[in-house]
Amino acid sequence: MAGKKFWRCTVCGDIHFGMAGPEICPTCKQKNVYIECDAAEAKKVMGL
Ligand SMILES: [Zn+2]
Predict the structure, then answer these.
(1) How many A from CA of 18 to the centre of ligand 1?
(2) CATH match of 5-46 with 2.160.10
(3) 41 CA to middle of ligand 1, Å?
(4) What distances in angstroms separate CA 34 from CA 5, 18, 19, one per listed residue?
(5) The predicted structure's pLDDT at residue 1
(6) How far apart are CA 32 and CA 42, in angstroms?
(7) Which bin fits 25, alpha (ψ -120 to 50), beta or left (φ > 0)?
(8) CA-based R_g, the chain, Å
(9) Ligand 1 centre from 19 Cα, in Å?
(10) What is the pTM of this model?
(11) What residues have a C-beta under 5 A from ligand 1, the ion?
(12) Chunked in runs of 10, what are the mean pLDDT values of the chain (48 residues)?
């Protein structure tokens, strides 16, 4: 998973895993709302 990171939408909490956060959140449709988040936080948000 080199280079890939977890990203979290600051509006709805949606988690994305990849090289960069999506420009537009697929869930809440807001632009530029993704921030980098660490794996532990991502798993907690996803309920793992
Ligand atoms: Zn969102």
Answers:
(1) 16
(2) no
(3) 16
(4) 12, 12, 12
(5) 57
(6) 18
(7) beta
(8) 10
(9) 18
(10) 0.84
(11) 9, 11-12, 14, 25, 27-28
(12) 89 95 97 95 88
